[in-house]
Known about the structure:
- Chain A: The chain crosses the membrane at residues 20-41, 53-74, 104-125, 131-152, 173-193, 225-244, 256-275, 282-301, 307-324.
- Chain A: This is ABC transporter permease.
- Chain A: Belongs to the binding-protein-dependent transport system permease family. AraH/RbsC subfamily.
- Chain A: One of its GO terms (molecular function) is transmembrane transporter activity.
- Chain A: Keywords: Cell inner membrane, Cell membrane, Membrane, Transmembrane, Transmembrane helix, Transport.
- The complex is a heterotetramer of chains A (333), B (514), C (316) and D (290).
- With 333 residues, chain A is mainly α.
- Helices cover 72% and strands 2% of the residues of chain A.
- In chain A, the strands form 2 sheets. Chain A has a two-stranded antiparallel sheet with strand order 1-4. In chain A, strands 2-3 form a two-stranded antiparallel sheet.
- In chain A, a hairpin with a 2-residue loop joins strand 2 (172-173) and strand 3 (176-177).
- In chain A, helix 2 packs parallel to helix 13, helix 4 packs parallel to helix 6 and helix 8 packs across helix 9 (198-208).
- With 514 residues, chain B is of the alpha/beta class.
- Chain B has 18 helices and 23 strands.
- In chain B, the strands form 6 sheets. Chain B has a 6-stranded mixed β-sheet, with helices on both faces.
- Chain C has 316 residues and is mostly helical.
- Chain C has a single domain (31-304), classed as ABC transporter involved in vitamin B12 uptake, BtuC (Orthogonal Bundle).
- Chain C is 77% helix and 3% strand.
- In chain C, the strands form 2 sheets. Chain C has a two-stranded antiparallel sheet. In chain C, strands 2-3 form a two-stranded antiparallel ribbon.
- Residues 311-316 of chain C have low confidence and may be disordered.
- Chains in contact: A-B, A-C, A-D, B-C, C-D.
- The interface between C and D is large, with 39 and 37 residues.
- The complex binds adenosine-5'-triphosphate (2 copies) and magnesium ion (MG) (2 copies).
Amino acid sequence: xKALLGSFRPGSKNSELSPLQFFGxxxxxxxxxxxxxxxxxxxxxxxxxxxxxTVVMQASIIGTIALGVTFVVIGGNLDLSVGSxxxxxxxxxxxxxxxxxxxxxxILMFVFTLxxxxxxxxxxxxxxxxxxxxxxxxxxxxxxxxxxxxGGKNVDISDQENTWxxxxxxxxxLGIPIPALIxxxxxxxxxxxxxxxxxxxxxxxxxGNGTAALFSGLRRNRLVxxxxxxxxxxxxxxxxxxxxxxxxxxxxxGEGYELLVLAGVILGGTSLLGGSGSIIRTVIGxxxxxxxxxxxLLLGYPYYTQWLxxxxxxxxxxxxxxxxxRGKLLSTY
Amino acid sequence: MTSQVxxxxxxxxxxxxxxETLLKLQNVSKTFPGVKALDGVDLDVRxxxxxxxxxxxxxxxxxxxxxxxxxYQPDGGExxxxxxxxxxxxxxxxxxxxxxxxxxxxxxxxDMTVAENVFLGNMPRFANMFVNNRHLNDRCGEILTRxxxxxxxxxxxxxxxxANQQMVEIARALVFQPKVVVFDEPTASLTxxxxxxxxxxxxxxxxxxxxxxxxxxRMDEIFELSDRISVLRDGTYQGTFETAQTNEDEVTQRxxxxxxxxxxxxxxxxxxxxxxxxxxxxxxxxxxDISFDVRxxxxVGFYGLVGAGRTEVMETIFGLRKADAGxxxxxxxxxPISSPSxxxxxxxxxVPESRKEQGLVLGMSCKDNTTLANISKFTKYGWIxxxxxxxxxxxxMEKLRIKCPGWEYETLNLSGGNQQKVVIGKWLSTSPKxxxxxxxxxxxxVGSKSEIHHLIRELAKTGLAVIVVSxxxxxxxxxxxxxxxMYDGRITQCFDRSEVTEDxxxxxxxxxxx
Amino acid sequence: xxxxVDLIKKQPIWIFVLVCIVFxxxxxxxxxxxxxxxxxxxxxxxxGLIALGMTFVMINGNIDLSVGATVALAASLAVGLQSELxxxxxxxxxxxxxxxIGALNGIIAWKTGVDAFIxxxxxxxxxxxxxxxxxxxxxxxxxxLAYSDFGASEIFSIPVLALIFILLTxxxxxxxxxxxxxxxxxxxxxxxxxxxxxxxxxxxxxxINFILVGFLAALSGILLSTQMGASTPNLGRNYxxxxxxxxxxxxxxxxxxxxxxxxxxxxxxxxxxxxxxMNLLQVPSFYVxxxxxxxxxxxLFIDKRFAEQQGQGVGA
Amino acid sequence: xxxxIGITQNNVGxxxxxxxxxxxxxxxxxxxxxxxxxxxxxxxxVARQISQVRDLIQQQxxxxxxxxxxxxxxxxxxxxxKDAGIPVVVTNSNIAEAGxxxxxxxxxxxxxxxxxxxxxxxxxQLGGKGDIVQITGQPGYTxxxxxxxxxxxxxxxxxxxxxxLDSQPGDWNREKAQRTMEGFxxxxxxxxxxxxxxxxxxxxxxxxxxxxxxxxxxxxxxxxNFAVGYEAMERGEYHxxxxxxxxxxxxxxxxxxxxxxxxxxxxxMSYFDTPKITRENMDEFEKPVF
Lengths: 333, 514, 316, 290
Ligand SMILES: Nc1ncnc2c1ncn2[C@@H]1O[C@H](COP(=O)(O)OP(=O)(O)OP(=O)(O)O)[C@@H](O)[C@H]1O
Ligand SMILES: Nc1ncnc2c1ncn2[C@@H]1O[C@H](COP(=O)(O)OP(=O)(O)OP(=O)(O)O)[C@@H](O)[C@H]1O
Ligand SMILES: [Mg+2]
Ligand SMILES: [Mg+2]
């Protein structure tokens, strides 16, 4: 576990750490603990198992998407289409649920979601178009497709009581809500993949220096492609949770999620330039955002104060992170 | 031998300075995380001299000069310019003090014009706010004329050849009336003609009383150009020599702490079957009708001027470019190579021209870079065997004498030469049948260079087919069994080692024999 | 003539604009009409003004995601404070707020070294929070009708808003092309390390650009609020995305170092004409989303083909 | 004679109500053989809606129907239309005071009244006493503001002993409302009632309460009765809502627009009926189609 948390950048060296370096390395964990402590002191409702699972569960949708997006970002790209894709996948799985049954609905949902991921992947991986703009275009296009599919109407599961589809969003295992479980288990699995598998290593390489990776015989196109499949897959998983939790969906249910997902990934210290990052840190990043939201609400602040706090937290966290790598607080240009 | 060197060193120290000392670096130290790059280094430069700075890769030459130019801050020691202690806290301040550094790596903006690059950060202006375009281009034109450059100030920089870009980099220093100019390996990508022009400019600067620091790994240049030579080894100062009173062996000995390995003895190679056969390869606009073959156990040198198209040919063979015509046969089989991974599967390896852009993932560790090209060999059911990776890296670290604090060290902070060695190690670890090296010793010190040359010969002996692309004649002459000369996208002539002369080679690469 | 050919080669977006104009003129009787063109200009001016500033920021190698929130903040202040400060005072405060947000972004990016994308992503979330705190989720209404009259006013039967946009486009073009600042913006975006080592002060240039885009976003928000005589806290949502889209369509490179105001103008007009034309043709709104998204990707694709034809090495 | 009637809608596709409205409008326009409809959607963006009004003026339609994205911000656009000689009918959600003299007519539900109805139902169901929470619509949108105002003004009049513990927005979004409700449930040990500004959000709140096993102790009151709300009411989990038919909303608007185009006198405020619906009287209503 220590190894998993530690090596967020392959090749970084372990030696004595100055306070700044320590913070850069473990800052996100420090921030996490800080959040917990502050909110626990401020309200006695915060630190309870029940509320903890509420936080994890609320984080689970954004968090699950963020897992896949972390791979995309480490590979040197961005994915802004996940919000729309989440809407699409949720509308699809919920709508199909009553028409073809939950099992087939889930399969079809993954097929079509991955198909859209493949379009992203093809445009960015094989045609080498800029990911920011492509996924921006896809954000709009997928939204349109979703609306055309549903005719602009909300979709609902009619029999909410007697479907095993409720499993993904509403049930518990050993007292842990399934959404939280999906998020955490998928997170751990993907962290292992990232750090220990050849695939993970290659993603670091293409993000670190795509040309050198190409010259080393890595199939860069295919690897970029696969990161988008992965982000589509985790978005599909999030759609399962969301659809099952709500037992219905609106066409704009994922609106704005892309930026929250990105905020979580960035908070986790993944570099937008690619080549470095960590899944576990993304998980912590997303949890911090969820905690801020939950904690401030418990304290009775209006919901928009969380935006201000998020602003400060993102900048300070990323600042300290890079200040540690730089060795001093202020940059020199 | 050693005593002789010491006497020379002592002599040099005792010499009365013929001219006044312009610049003095005293007891300069610099530590990077994990590396002591400079340890109490002294250096003095006189007005109107060319002072060569010599040292192995990673000895600290560039670091020392970057401290001088205000890019790095030293941990200790001082800079004394014309008797005054100065602190160079930024490149601008250094420039204001009249100290200019011409970078080892190009530091230009490709999308701007030549003139804009020359006057970068220093544009002629009017009304204090607007760019004076006419003035800009006129003055740039004057400087380019002085450098004998044949391109226009309004040309987009990115359209120039690397050599011409290097000339632009040099032109930038001439905008000012510099007191000290540092040239950090300026000739690495220059042709002989441009080199002559450059040397003329350097001599001109010397006449005008400028102090010049000249860093290069090419001994011939150093002895041709310099007045004195200072040597660094492992971040420590090793003494200063009058060029006229020393010789190559002596400074080399100082530099690497031992004698250079004996010259390569060429025995007629034991040739195996044809490993690589190229027939009629062509890409429109780049090169045409390229046919040659390489046999196992043979080293074929590709010689030509920068821009002759050698790199493009090699990249095509390696699957990085799509040929318009022609075929590539590997070991008699006509399997298509449409990507580098196909090429690797068939036993090819390519040490690319640009280590930073094409060779290394700089943010990854030495170990990870070493295994990048055949990561699949180190994975089992998709999982990486880190221990095996370390073993292989440490093996090559030793074999190639890579100066690297540890397997986890990021390649970003290695010196250029050591980076190159990591790239070579990466390809050797794939155990290729055919290895292509594009400018394998560009920017590499003489010691390592001869090691790499030996290594190439050794590899050939074990039955590897090797292609060496190089722009240095001594290099191709040293390592090759056969030499292919290219000019303007065509093969002009193939020489056997025994029959080649410098003269015929030069004629072949300048297209004079056709 | 050669210059025009040259321009088209460099600015393929203008071909697209021409194609759109021809297409919509043929297919809708209402399109080719002087009134409609001034409509398009007014509609383009909102995103267009921001895009002018964004062009500087993006050529400089940065990006600003907080402009949409700045639009809302400036508009809310400029309308909300009118009862206390009068129109002029309130507008001044609104413009100031944009400058402040820009300066804040610039200083944070400069001094901390945090990537502008992250700095402004944070600001995008946070400034919207500020807007909600200030407005308490309410829309504001300008009681003085002079305010909304300004938004509807015309000079020589050209809407004032369109005139302001055209004027500022020219000014921005001149600054980018002919001033030292403009030239250095290219240098910094093209190769930041080289620029820095050549003595260009990277930080101040970045700061100026962020202030510029902040100011223009605020101005855009205020002009928008004169069209409405009101402001809403949700104003400007997604504007950052459309602005970036317009700038990129105009040929400015996302990684910096290359781009032009003329191109940006083309990108802005392309989007405005598409939207206007599709409204006139009554394209169902769901399909508008798909069409806009697809066109963005297709133009990007064509642009890339253009760039590749101009000769590139290994497909790196 | 055919009339060209242009409509710019608020945000079609954001929920079923608006979509059903659009369909009903198009069908009604189709059925009326003297109408040529131009149907546009502002996608929730005020600026785009203003552009669309300009585009409609450009096309010289006979009447413009506008479903304001923001009650105040569209006033100058309406003025522009009026100046161009095109009468404007406002639908569904009214525009601000200043715009009233400019419009030919308003047609739609009375959102303030709806909020008041919700307050009355809440009061009834709670028996006059209790602590409740409120989930509002998207901040800044007129419908959300008016329903909240109607509810908050009426509640103390009928039930001074019911306190509103907290109000947070649910953005007309079921999932968001569900999350908001989860927060409320953690924060307050005792919640007797929830008022959600539409049933879509109300059902989200119900979901949250059910997963905490606290649904039984809570009264759920919504507005704009959705199919899911109707079903939940059938199951006995949901207590009251306001019945509002988008088809009627659309037809009403179109009819008034036609009347305006013909130059007939129309009523300035044409509210259509939005009755309370509770478990007791729900048999009288058809299940909503959205
Ligand atoms: N920014 C840096 N961070 C960490 N270590 C560095 C950095 N720059 C240089 N070093 C280390 O300092 C030592 C000296 O490097 P330097 O670049 O000065 O060598 P050099 O003599 O110029 O070599 P070459 O001939 O290969 O250019 C090397 O060991 C290198 O790894
Ligand atoms: N005449 C030229 N005009 C513009 N760019 C050139 C020209 N010649 C060479 N270049 C650039 O310089 C690079 C090196 O040239 P190229 O690979 O064609 O030759 P080469 O024979 O491999 O030379 P070398 O490897 O010694 O640089 C090329 O990638 C090309 O972009
Ligand atoms: Mg060096
Ligand atoms: Mg080459």
